[in-house]
């Protein structure tokens, strides 16, 4: 099935929108509590449960428009469903919060496995979008492997030692922004390894 192209703004809204909607819902519900079937749930847990269908709806729309869903999006959706379910079942916010640690940890571990095999899984995923020599991909993979590990540890420290309010803000804005800036700086520093498709290979 051929991948369709859509407006990049629409794509970004569909990919990032659910997290921002979760943030807004959390702000509206954080001071409230809700009782279902004799069990009282915090506003955070209710917001986390509302986030699940919003995320799935966003992915369904993205699939309908592009006929493609990234592996990372699928993994994130599975973890959101599993840990969102555990959060509701045990009425414990920590399950949903540790989801972020697992996502970043799995990414770091996956890149590390590739590095041990002398491969860059990043090159396999992003090679067509960003032509670069193998040495550059290996360097970028090593740095991102460490970066994801740092974010995983940071998430653990934040949710275990700080307030839910602060965790939600960092999860929504700080962690993605830190990852974006880190990735941009790495790509900028690896420009000498980039391949210009316009130039003939030597």
From TrEMBL:
GO cellular component, as recorded: plasma membrane
Domain of life: Bacteria
Entry annotated with the keyword Cell membrane: yes
Cell compartments where the protein resides: Cell inner membrane
Residues passing through the membrane, by range: 12-29, 41-65, 72-90, 102-122, 143-161, 173-195
Primary localization: membrane
One Pfam family here: IspA
Alphabetical list of InterPro entries matching this protein: YciB
Membrane topology of this protein: Multi-pass membrane protein
HAMAP family: YciB
Role played: Plays a role in cell envelope biogenesis, maintenance of cell envelope integrity and membrane homeostasis.
Protein name: Inner membrane-spanning protein YciB
Origin organism lineage: Bacteria, Pseudomonadati, Pseudomonadota, Alphaproteobacteria, Rhodobacterales
